[in-house]
Structures are given as structure tokens and as C-alpha cells.
Amino acid sequence: MADEAETTSNPKIRTVPLDTPIIRGETKIESIQLRKPGGGELRGISLVQLGQLQADALHTLIPRISIPPLTKPEAMALEADDLLACGIEIGDFLLQNRRRTAAPEQ
């Protein structure tokens, strides 16, 4: 995951650099941080769909856990490579620590 996104000193927050920045007025957002989602932030979202990195599930969750907060239209406008990078980090958040450390190295 380290090549996809920089891990901050807080393991519950990941920084994802965007290949295609988000333009919000005169502000250019070149990276976003994602917080580890809590149960309430996952309401109405299928964990199976998140695990499969389905775009609709990611579009719903990213605005709930992003810093700066993205709007749903901004999340939907993310380029596919940036959406996938966010999805990979979200998927890693959903693994239990013991499963993450037990995963075989590739």
C-alpha cells in the first residue's frame, strides 16, 4: 500500500495523492486524507460492495471520511486511478490487524 499512498503517523488516517487534482473554485486539491470509517459511516453501504471496490459504494463512503471533505459529485468525478487508490486504502482499513499481518507477501 505504501506505493499507492503515504501512511501518516496516525494509522487510522491515510494520505492519497491524486494524479488528477480536484479543482474547487480557486483551490486545487492534490491529495486527500481518508479516515478509517466507523460503523456509523458505513450505514447503508454493503461491505461486500466495498470489498469489491464497487464505485457506487466508494462514491458514498469517500465524502464521509475524506479530509478535506469531498462532496459526492467530487467523489464521483474522481478519475478511475484515483478512485481505485482510495478504494485500496479503504479496503485495507476494513481488514483486521491480524489478517493484514498474516497476508502473504507478493
UniProtKB/TrEMBL annotation:
Domain of life (superkingdom): Bacteria
Protein's name in the database: Phage tail assembly chaperone protein, E, or 41 or 14
